[in-house]
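Design request, tokens follow.
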């Protein structure tokens, strides 16, 4: 009876019997995998609770501050919690950091000076960083301030080009940036262990170099974080994993005290640093979002694994594949045609609790070199820990799926995307 009622609910949401049964078969095969995800979430949940308890979080820390924000106990304690949870000496966690790109810019520009060189040993960074660095000319880029850039691409098999990295390191190399997630690329996401190996290699050859990890989409996916394996700084966005879907804005920089302090002077002003910046009454959301984050991330991970197995079964290229260990919440699916990308995003949008009636269309977006389609029926605009999908309309025509505040919503989104592909004729049959 219960199954019949549930099937009825799915049918009301536009999921046909064929799609529902196809998805149910795959879900059954993933029970053991999902149990492993839950075990990691439990570990990380305890880690967050311990961080809050050690730093004596109280309801007084939820109080709002305005103006300069001097003596903002909630802000300062939240940063201590982040430092504890992510095993850093210090943290900068602020609503004034408006995105992951902004947090990365602040971290980079705070720690680089004219004449320094920035090295990426994992290939081209995410599209929006191209203008920050100056790969694509833009007003205020690091390039304009005399910071040069060098990159070493991954080898064809996705491994590090250690020989190329060693050659690229020079007297001017001040900071190495390592992007954990794949961005708009189909390369594998880097595990914390692999990041640790890369950092160890670099530090053996140039101990004084700053190793920064773009940790976006990766927090709480594993039991360890890059700061546990030698990273001097990790940078994230609160409208991704650590905000738990509740943070309305914000970014975080965690790591060595000197690195974090230099970033804070860039965020505010020389001489001010971390001592200013009012929290404007959102501290409670930031604390609660962090508290929920391990469980939310687990739901998103289950959705990514489910999506990989569904679309791999149908013959589409997926990165990671259905069996690989997970190191971030993003699932790339290559359709090979614009129609496939568009239909998938339409399905995700139709499954949303917010703006389900909206049809996403490709359009030109700031920071990108081609039209991008985005599906997101989110409570927080731009929050990619909520169910969303996006991709550039250019070869190989891949879509990037992530998020889901609950596993059940992520599941619905995948089923709805599959139904949309069938309805639009992109996919003929399920097999």
């Amino acid at each position: 009876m219960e199954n019949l009622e549930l099937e009825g609910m799915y049918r009301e949401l536009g999921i046909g019997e064929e799609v529902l049964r196809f998805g149910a078969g795959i879900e059954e095969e993933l029970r053991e995998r999902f149990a492993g995800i839950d075990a990691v979430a439990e570990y990380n949940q305890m880690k967050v609770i311990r961080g809050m308890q050690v730093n004596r979080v109280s309801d007084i820390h939820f109080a709002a501050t305005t103006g300069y924000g001097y003596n903002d106990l909630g802000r300062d304690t939240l940063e201590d919690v982040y430092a504890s949870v992510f095993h850093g000496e210090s943290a900068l966690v602020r609503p004034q950091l408006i995105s992951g790109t902004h947090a990365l810019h602040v971290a980079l520009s705070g720690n680089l000076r004219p004449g320094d060189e920035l090295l990426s040993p994992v290939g081209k960074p995410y599209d929006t960083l191209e203008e920050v660095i100056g790969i694509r000319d833009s007003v205020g880029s690091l390039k304009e301030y005399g910071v040069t850039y060098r990159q070493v691409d991954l080898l064809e098999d996705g491994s590090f080009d250690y020989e190329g990295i060693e050659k690229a390191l020079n007297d001017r190399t001040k900071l190495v940036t390592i992007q954990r997630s794949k961005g708009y690329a189909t390369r594998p996401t880097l595990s914390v262990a692999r990041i640790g190996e890369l950092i160890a290699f670099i530090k053996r050859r140039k101990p004084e170099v700053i190793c920064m990890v773009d940790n976006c989409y990766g927090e709480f996916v594993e039991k360890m974080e890059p700061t546990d394996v030698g990273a001097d700084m990790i940078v994230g966005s609160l409208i991704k994993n650590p905000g738990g879907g509740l943070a309305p804005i914000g970014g975080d920089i965690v790591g060595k005290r000197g690195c974090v302090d230099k970033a804070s002077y860039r965020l505010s002003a020389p001489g001010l640093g971390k001592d200013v910046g009012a929290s404007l009454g959102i501290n409670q959301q930031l604390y609660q979002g962090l508290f929920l984050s391990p469980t939310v991330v687990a739901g998103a991970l289950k959705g990514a694994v489910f999506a990989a197995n569904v679309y791999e079964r149908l013959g589409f290229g997926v990165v990671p594949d259905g069996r690989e260990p997970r190191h971030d919440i993003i699932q790339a699916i290559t359709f090979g045609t614009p129609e496939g990308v568009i239909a998938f995003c339409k399905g995700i949008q139709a499954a949303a609790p917010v703006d389900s009636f909206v049809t996403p269309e490709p359009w030109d977006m700031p920071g990108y070199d081609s039209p991008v389609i985005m599906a997101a029926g989110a409570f927080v605009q731009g929050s990619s820990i909520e169910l969303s999908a996006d991709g550039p309309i250019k070869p190989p025509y891949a879509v990037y799926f992530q998020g889901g505040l609950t596993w059940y919503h992520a599941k619905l989104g995948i089923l709805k995307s599959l139904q949309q592909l069938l309805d639009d004729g992109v996919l003929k049959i399920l097999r």
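Comment from the thread starter after seeing the answer: thanks! The longest strand covers residues 173-179.
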